[in-house]
TrEMBL record, chain A:
Record CDD domains: ABC_MalK_N
Molecular function GO labels: ABC-type transporter activity; ATP binding; ATP hydrolysis activity
Gene3D superfamilies named in the record: 2.40.50.100, Nucleic acid-binding proteins (2.40.50.140), P-loop containing nucleotide triphosphate hydrolases (3.40.50.300)
Classification via InterPro entries: AAA+_ATPase (IPR003593), ABC_transporter-like_ATP-bd (IPR003439), ABC_transporter-like_CS (IPR017871), ABC_transpr_MalK-like (IPR015855), ABC_transpr_MalK/UgpC-like (IPR047641), Mo/tungstate-bd_C_term_dom (IPR008995), NA-bd_OB-fold (IPR012340), P-loop_NTPase (IPR027417)
Domain of life of the native organism: Bacteria
GO annotations of cellular component type: ATP-binding cassette (ABC) transporter complex, substrate-binding subunit-containing
ABC transporter domain ranges (all copies): 4-235
UniProt KW keywords: ATP-binding, Cell inner membrane, Cell membrane, Membrane, Nucleotide-binding, Sugar transport, Translocase, Transport
SMART domains: AAA
Species of provenance: Pseudovibrio denitrificans
NCBIfam families according to UniProt: PRK11650.1
Keyword Cell membrane among UniProt keywords: yes
Membrane topology per record: Peripheral membrane protein
Listed name of the protein: Carbohydrate ABC transporter ATP-binding protein, CUT1 family
Amino acid sequence: MAGIKLNTLRKIYAGNVEAVKGISIDIQDGEFIVLVGPSGCGKSTLLRMVAGLETITDGELFIGDRLVNNVEPADRDIAMVFQNYALYPHMSVYNNLAYGLKNRNIPKDEIEKRVRKAAEILEIGDFLDRKPRQLSGGQRQRVAMGRAIVREPAAFLFDEPLSNLDAKLRVQMRMEIKKLQKELGTTSLYVTHDQLEAMTLADRLVVLSGGEVEQIGSPIDVYEKPASTFVATFIGSPAMNLLPLTKQGSDWKLDNGATVDVKLNTDLSDLILGVRPEDLVIEELSEKFDTGLHTALTVNVVEPVGAESYVHGTIGEGSVDVVVRAPGKLHFEPGQILKVTAKPEKLHTFDTKTGKRIEVQGALEAA
Amino acid sequence: MSIYKHGLQLTPGGHFTDTYKQVLTEAGGFTKSVTGLTMLWNSLILGLGFAIGKIVISMLAAYAIVYFRFPLGTFFFWIIFSTLLLPLEVRILPSYEIVQGLGMANTYTGLIVPLIASATGTFYFRQFFKSVPDELVEAARIDGAGPLKFFIDILVPLSKTMIAAIFIIMFVFGWNQYLWPTLITTDESLFTLVRGMKQILQVWIGAQIPDTNQAMALAVLAMLPPVLIVVIFQSWFVKGLVESEK
Ligand SMILES: Nc1ncnc2c1ncn2[C@@H]1O[C@H](COP(=O)(O)OP(=O)(O)OP(=O)(O)O)[C@@H](O)[C@H]1O
Ligand SMILES: [Mg+2]
């Protein structure tokens, strides 16, 4: 077992495509790191560089204390779980698990022991004689996991391992992977574009965009203090509401004229205000406070999802779609006008040009 | 003889075993040195040698083309591919020259090797290898399978049905070769069945009447092995077509 250190890793593909633009991450021993980002942001490329399946254009990669830039995948002491499982179709489940061990000249009885143990952990003991095509998707996924486990590697690498499963199984396997990783304590690097999967699995999240790191942090940190508008909208569902905020005199105002009572330490006069749907509460349902955000919202569409409803609306002419998370038992009519509020500590502000976070200092009045 | 009196008959004549025994064991031909059994054996060597040689060569060539980057790889592939357009008959004279020059006339090598040199098999295997998912190759790399291990442990077993299909086609093709064996073998002990059959029917000189019964018996013998091969391998063949193992 070991940590992994990525030191300004870069990848330039043929044709001058810079897929990874100097990424540094320090992964602790036993840590579960999730790389998350939209399609094409370079997650797979980064993971495959760690695996050794893609050459490293520039930068250094350490697994444990060893510089492995030019080490073959098989000698990097890693195991990888692929999206489409990549099981050997002609081999039995047992041989699928054993193949990598045989190639390393591990004695037969040791192989047998490890395979049986992995099969027991993953509950695939009954299928050891079957071929992969005789298994369901979930079972194949387990076999793929088993192939990683028997190697007893320094690190697991996962590239969207659950995206071929149906929604229910995905949730179940997600929890199993997490449990297994905690039990084995193996350093893991996990790639996904599903922010929910990322949030639930990660010890630390790495949010990527366009080949660069947007933010690294624990899921809660990333959720509560997104470093940029990109992270703010990418993590969390429904996404954070973003509204233009301008300085008029000494007040910060929204486009519809509503004053937002926040204290900001910035020279800029154009900002973006961010507020999560669940932090935007209907005034009648909340305690009274004068600071923060107070505005009227015209309801357009209501999406009931059971325990709660997502109320979509606008706050005046030309407003973007604003989403409020309301209790599911309430009823809303399109055209209805709601008063919504948010406390200052629930507000996020970002630089309009760079998208970078500007810390909210609290309420003006309180200051 | 009755074929000349009554035309073709549907039922076997009265000399069934006699004829086959004669054909198989009695030496025939001009030099009276070659039996049906020898010819059967020669045909078998040609068919098997050709099919197996072809499969081995074309798998290796396709493996190189698909999995290794080398300069002008694509260019070489298309060169090889273009030989598909040239059937044996077109390049038969130069081939003959070369084999003759190398002193390989009247040898099994000379009989088989020039036939192997064409791109059909390479092309089929290339297409098949290309359909093997990249992730499988990568999984094998992580599992510590080098190029040779990957080929033997994974690619060959995966190609099983493909190999069976090509084996059938190539065996029958090799077995039925006529023109090339006719050119390259003058020694009767190397005659194949197809060639020997012709020999019997060709003796229409003077009052001599061809031993049609023998020719027909040989024809049946010549048909049997390809039929057997197809019957034996057809379940594999169909399996390969119906269920994809990927
Ligand atoms: N072999 C390649 N040659 C050239 N460009 C490539 C290659 N592989 C990937 N790219 C480019 O690199 C960028 C990152 O690709 P990558 O596969 O890492 O994205 P990803 O984040 O894994 O996306 P997804 O979620 O869709 O899997 C993309 O713009 C892609 O087009
Ligand atoms: Mg990817």
